[in-house]
Amino acid sequence: MGKKVLIAGESWMSYTTHVKGFDSFYTSVYEEGVEYLRNALKLAGYEVTFIPNHLAPVNFPFTMEELAEYSCVILSDIGSNTLLLPPETFAKSIKRPNRCQLIRDYVLQGGAFLMVGGYMSFTGIDAKSRYGQTAIQDILPVRCIAVDDRMEHPEGVVPVTIADHDALRGLPQQWPAFLGYNKTEVIPQGQVLATIDGDPFIAVGEFGKGKAAAFTSDCAPHWGPQEFVEWEYYNTLWKGLLDFLTK
Question: pTM for the full model?
Answer without folding.
Answer: 0.96
